[in-house]
Design brief:
Layout lengths: L2 H33 L10 H35 L15 H6 L7 H6 L1
Helix pairs in contact: 1-2
This protein binds zinc ion.
């Protein structure tokens, strides 16, 4: 894969993930703001339980998006180092189709299936 193509692939995924992270952060802030209108007694207020659950879910998705951004930043470094298409586990090539589908991947399909 061409370095320029790889960089574009990663940049596109980064922009998309950054947008997702921003939307999730906004959603979390809205949930936090909304919860200020409830009693704050999670244990006895059924609505409080729902809000706490929603907040935990959004928080988990946000953390995942942030992890993805870190992984994509690392992928960009791998492109610059010339090892983007090299599997970190076996040293074999990572198929172009796999990198297109998963721009942040660091292992080939064979190693992924072994995990
Ligand atoms: Zn491998």
């Amino acid at each position: 894969m061409d370095e320029r193509v790889a960089t574009e692939l990663i940049e596109r995924a980064r922009a998309e993930t950054a947008r997702l992270a921003a939307a999730l952060a906004r959603q979390r802030d809205e949930i936090v703001a909304a919860s200020e209108f409830t009693s704050g007694d999670d244990e006895h207020d059924p609505e409080g339980v729902t809000i706490a659950f929603e907040r935990a879910q959004v928080q988990a998705l946000l953390r995942q998006a942030q992890d993805d951004l870190t992984a994509l930043a690392r992928a960009a470094e791998r492109v610059l180092a010339g090892v983007y298409e090299v599997c970190e586990r076996c040293g074999g090539p990572i198929a172009e189709g796999r990198l297109t589908a998963l721009p942040a991947t660091r292992i080939c399909i064979t190693c992924a299936n072994r995990l």
